[in-house]
Amino acid sequence: MGESSTVPALRHGLALLRQLSRLGQPAPASALAAELGLPRSTTYHLLAELERAGLVVHLPEEQRYGLGVGVYELGAAYTKQAPLARLARPLLTGLVDSTGHSAHLAVLHGREVLYLVEERARGGPSLVTDVGVRLPAQLTASGRALLAGLPAAQVRALFPDASAFVRRHGLGPRRPADLRALLVDVRRRGYAVEDGEVTPGFASVAVPATDHTGHPVAAVASTFDQARVGEASWPGLAERVAAAAGELARRIGGAPHPRW
C-alpha cells in the first residue's frame, strides 16, 4: 500500500481516537462517522484495524466503540518518559537566558499546582517553587493561568466555597467570587500574575500551554525580584513567557486556547 493511501488512513484513525477521547465515553460507529465526515464503510474498517491493535474495544451489546487498553498503555509509557518536562526544559533555559529571571513549569493537581521543572537564573535566589513542590493553585501565577483556561463549572467544582481557599501571608482570594473576578482579569490581560502572594518580594507572570483541544496542560512562568522589575515591564516579560508556552504547545501538538 502506497503513501498516498496510508497517510489519509492514519490521519482518519487518529481522528477517531481523538474523537473518542473528547467524548469521554463509548460511541456508535455511525455517530463517529457523522461527526468526522467519514463514510460508514471507512469508519468500520478503521475501527476494526484499531481494535486489532488494541487501541479500540468493541462493545457488541451496546453496539458502541470505546478506547482500548492499548491507549492506557501508551499513556502510561508517556508518563514514564516524562516528555513534557523534557520538551519544556530547553525552552525554560532559553527563557532564563533571554530574561535573566528564573523560570518553571507547573501542572494542575486538584486545587494545587505541582512544579515539574525549575531553571534558576544565574546567581538567582532559591525559590519555593522547586521541583516536586505543591502550592495552592489560586495563589500562584501558574495556577491562575491554568484555572483561567478551565470551564467555569470545573473551577466551581474545585473551589465550591470559602473552605476550599488556602491562604498564605494573608493574601489571595478568599471566596469563589474573588477567584472568578481574578480569572476574568487573567483572561482579559492574556497572562496571569502573582505579586508577593507566594514569597514576599517576588512576583511571577505565567501563560498556559494547551493541547489540541485547547485544554491547559501546563503553565510556563517567570519569577523575579519586585525591586528589580517594575510593573511596567511585566507585559513585555509576559510576551516572552507566552512565546515559550506557545512553542511548548506546538511541540505537544496543541493550539492556542480559545479563551486566550
TrEMBL record:
Quote the Pfam families the UniProt record gives. HTH_IclR, IclR_C
Q: Does the keyword DNA repair apply?
A: no
- Keywords linked to the UniProt accession: DNA-binding, Transcription, Transcription regulation
Q: Which InterPro entries match?
A: ArsR-like_HTH, GAF-like_dom_sf, HTH_MetabolicPath_Reg, Tscrpt_reg_IclR_C, Tscrpt_reg_IclR_N, WH-like_DNA-bd_sf, WH_DNA-bd_sf
Molecular functions per Gene Ontology: DNA binding; DNA-binding transcription factor activity
Identify the residues that the record assigns to the IclR-ED domain, covering every copy.
70-254
HTH iclR-type domain mapped to chain residues: 7-69
Highest taxon above the source species? Bacteria
Any one GO BP annotation for this protein: negative regulation of DNA-templated transcription
> Which SMART domains does the annotation name?
HTH_ICLR (SM00346)
On whether Repressor is a keyword of this UniProt record, the answer is no
- Which PANTHER family has this protein been placed in? HELIX-TURN-HELIX TRANSCRIPTIONAL REGULATOR, ICLR FAMILY, HTH-TYPE TRANSCRIPTIONAL REGULATOR RV1719
**What name does this protein carry?**
IclR family transcriptional regulator
